[in-house]
Write a structure and sequence with these properties.
By secondary structure, this protein is an all-alpha fold. Helix content is 77%, strand content 0%. Helix 2 packs antiparallel against helix 3 and helix 4 packs antiparallel against helix 5. Its cofactor is Mg(2+).
Length: 86
């Protein structure tokens, strides 16, 4: 929504009116669809995911099975968060 507002400042007026009126919801969704907000948000999420994975991988080495399993789970969670559809 914030990225969409950068592209379409008039969206702020719609948000300020609230979403109790279904017409405002449709107007806001229309602006969101027209904007690059979703793509920019996905790009930002990917950047943060990559940074998180690098941080996990930079932790001191351990051959402990539980540590290895936990690290793999952390990496899996970061990937799952940005690839989920719901």
């Amino acid at each position: 929504m914030l990225y969409a507002m950068e592209e379409f400042p008039q969206l702020l007026e719609v948000v300020d009116r609230g979403f109790g009126n279904p017409a405002n919801v449709e107007i806001a969704l229309d602006y969101l669809r027209k904007s690059h907000g979703v793509e920019r948000t996905k790009e930002l999420a990917r950047e943060h995911t990559d940074r998180a994975v690098k941080a996990i991988e930079s932790l001191p080495y351990s051959d402990d099975k539980d540590v290895l399993t936990s690290r793999r789970a952390l990496v899996d969670i970061t990937e799952r968060v940005i690839t989920r559809t719901k």
